[in-house]
Specification:
Elements (H helix, E strand, L loop, with lengths): L2 E6 L3 H12 L4 E4 L15 E2 L9 H25 L5 E2 L3 E5 L2 H17 L6 E5 H7 L9 E5 L3 E3 L1 H14 L3 E3 L4 E5 L4 E5 L4 E9 L5 H4 L10 E10 L13 E3 L5 E4 L13 H14 L8 E11 L6 E4 L6 E5 L7 H6 L1 H5 L20
Parallel strand pairs: 1-2, 1-12, 2-9, 12-18
Antiparallel strand pairs: 3-8, 4-8, 5-7, 6-7, 10-11, 11-12, 13-15, 13-16, 14-15, 17-18
Helix pairs in contact: 1-5, 2-5
Length: 366
């Protein structure tokens, strides 16, 4: 075989898995698409987020917690290996609320999940006055917030760059600008790209985001994924205004404030809209009134990768053993778990995490 693993998809998910496999001594070739590909890795909100994950599936909450707990060491190792910092803050994050009713309803839901996690769900409720001590620029319309102590945020572009750099350092191969057109399994896997490039591999991992919907059935997967658009706004670089991130806004390490994100079912349309951006701006100003004076410098739309229940899919093909589907919409949060723990699952190690709940079998239940 030309390589132990061929990974189709060079975003954060694919590169995180590649990094972990290279670290484990495997040979890896990553096949990445062209500049026209939909790329969640370059358009996401950059959160390393635990709260609200797995409300109906505690295993997902625990998986997110495991990854969040590994993130700091993961970022430090990447920075040490490449000399490229991966900025990360994990001092907690907020779920901001504009009504007492929504705040109480969320607390009630969190208490149910906390019990299922044997109490391991470290959050506290801050009323408006307590929140204002932590966030002096919070607006009067915010009645309070849930501060979850396992949450944080990172710089996703710098993560992507560091992963690519360390992949090269460890001898991995990254093939850019290729579209996979066919996959056959005569012995190992014979992968053919639209330009005629061919790659042979003992195993193949489909981590192509939305592209998995097309390639998945060729490998025996259902790959029932869909796009969901999220629009984002970026302000000019500002003095420190926000101390901890929320789902409404976060201040990135360069100083700009990222505002987002919408949740829109519009197919593969990743364009921005005036109504979407206006709604984001209104929410951000309600939360942080000082943002009304900030100058906006960029906006974009990007497509999330969602399964029917919103959870990741980790599946080995029954039709083509050695082919794996790895897809999720929380590629930043789960990057550390994909790098440190998923290779054990792929290699069927005795210490592999139990990911059975994330198989495609859950979609076959009547």
């Amino acid at each position: 075989m030309e390589t132990d693993y061929a990974i189709i998809g060079g975003g954060v998910v694919g590169l995180s898995v590649a990094w972990g496999l290279l670290r484990a001594g495997k040979t890896v070739t990553v096949i990445d698409g062209d500049d026209g590909s939909f790329r969640a890795s370059r358009g996401n909100f950059g959160l390393v987020w635990v709260q609200s994950k797995g409300m109906n599936q505690p295993r997902y909450a625990k998986w997110s917690q495991q990854s969040a707990g590994l993130w700091a060491e993961f970022a430090q190792e990447l920075a040490h290996n490449t000399g490229q910092a991966v900025p990360l803050e994990q001092r907690g994050g907020y779920d901001l609320h504009f009504s007492e009713e929504s705040l109480q309803k969320t607390v009630d839901d969190y208490e149910v999940l906390k019990a299922k996690l044997d109490g391991d769900y470290p959050y506290e409720v801050l009323g408006h006055n307590a929140l204002r001590k932590e966030e002096p620029h919070i607006g009067p319309k915010v009645v309070g917030a849930i501060l979850h102590h396992q949450d944080g945020h990172a710089n996703p572009l710098k993560l992507l760059m560091a992963l690519a750099a360390d992949l090269h350092r460890m001898g991995g191969r990254l093939v850019n600008g290729k579209t996979v057109s066919d996959i056959q399994k005569p012995d190992g896997f014979d992968i053919t790209c639209s330009d005629g490039t061919r790659i042979s591999a003992a195993k193949v991992i489909l981590a192509a985001g939305l592209g998995a919907a097309t390639l998945g059935p060729k490998l025996g997967f259902q790959a029932p994924i869909r796009p969901q658009r999220g629009q984002v706004l970026i302000t000019e670089k500002l003095p420190k205004l926000i101390n901890r991130p929320s789902l409404i806004a976060r201040q990135v390490d360069e100083g700009g404030i990222q505002i987002g994100a919408t949740n829109e079912e519009v197919g593969h349309n990743d364009r921005v809209t005036q109504s979407g951006l206006s709604g984001l701006a209104a929410d951000a100003i309600a939360a942080y009134p000082a943002l009304a004076k900030a100058q906006l410098v960029r906006s974009w739309g990007a497509l999330r990768v969602l399964s029917p229940d919103g959870l990741p899919i980790y599946q080995e093909s029954r039709d083509m053993p050695g082919a794996f589907l790895v897809t999720c919409h929380s590629g930043i949060t789960l990057a550390a778990a994909h790098a440190r723990l998923l290779p054990q699952w792929l290699e069927k190690s005795d210490h592999a995490p139990n990911l059975e709940v994330f198989s495609e079998d859950r979609f076959n239940l009547s």
